[in-house]
Amino acid sequence: MLSTPTPTAGGKPFFGRVESVRGLGALAVAGFHFSLCLVHGAELIPHAAAADAGWVEAAVSRVARVLLTGQPAVVAFFVISGLVLRVSLENGPRPAGTASAKFVLARLFRFLPIAAVGVVVTTAMLALGVPPWPGTPMPDTRLFLANLFLLDTTLLSQLWTMQVELLAAPFILAAYFAERRWGAWVAPAAALAATGLSFSPHWALWKPLSVNLFAFLVGMALPTAGRTFAAGLSRRTAGLAAAGAAVAVLAAGPCFGVYSRFAAIVEVYAVGVGLSVAAYRPDVRVLKWLDARPLRLLGSSSGSYYVLHMATAPLLVALASAVVPAASAWRGVIGAALVAAWLVVIAPPMVVVYRAVEVPGIAAGRRLARSLGLDRRPPVGAVAPPTAVPVHRAAA
Known about the structure:
This protein is an all-alpha fold. The protein contains 16 helices and four strands. It has a two-stranded antiparallel sheet. Strand 1 and strand 2 (13-14) form a beta hairpin.
């Protein structure tokens, strides 16, 4: 069966399983970064097995090449943002100017507080002589302020995704208002157009935005086209679609090259299929594990996890130097077990940071929006949501 996502206290839909997917993405990115940490002069998890490695070590290396790329997780973040932002705009204020101002304000208060904390923590670690990334320079005042406001990412390279999120805002707003005027076909059409343009790295002036904007637009199409697609599937077919999407996401990099345009396109559209089922088909049992509360909580705190996980890298390297043999046929196996355990160990502190930094930052943005008169939502029932589609009671 197809159902409407659970509403939050503010009346906006909450996609619990999508939030869990966001948490898995944070784990994938962190695991990729941790696997590259140098221990005894070599990667903690070798992404290519030595010639004399046993079959277990070779298998770990192959799995590492598939799971620990980070790229599929990043494009999944962008697709999820498109989905969530599209729904948020639909449930926000109606006048274009008011909606746009509130949207931009919310984006700034969503990213700047946690980014600032990450920059401050990184600068403190550099001052103490324990850089999260080897070779990170000690910033002067100009570089520090530029990183603090996401104008530069020299201190924390992973913050480039937040730059993309902010720069995508005008395109998301334009697509939403065009859809509101001309119909639900706009988002899918814009997504297809941006997919073709992604082969031109400078059409949107900045390469990371040029090649990734289509992922946001694919996400924006999910509340309409994606929801309709999910509604038309039987429960069994929906489960197979979600499983096939996961396989496609993992196989795209090895098949086409991790950072190739074709791999990114396969990943984005496969993520779109999977998220359509995860968001709008709660009856699909194969995805029930995404309802786990710890995973959902990790998804909520994924911003803190994404920004700050490398702050823990020096501790991980110190621990790995003590427990991982300098030369061993089981180096990759031991390293993989250690990374997996570390991903779990650092999760609770990241949840604490989320509640101490991100939640107050988001709340401050909402208070400012209210004080500026930007939070006038339409009366309940006054606007029919364009996401509504006929309910299909699927057979098992």
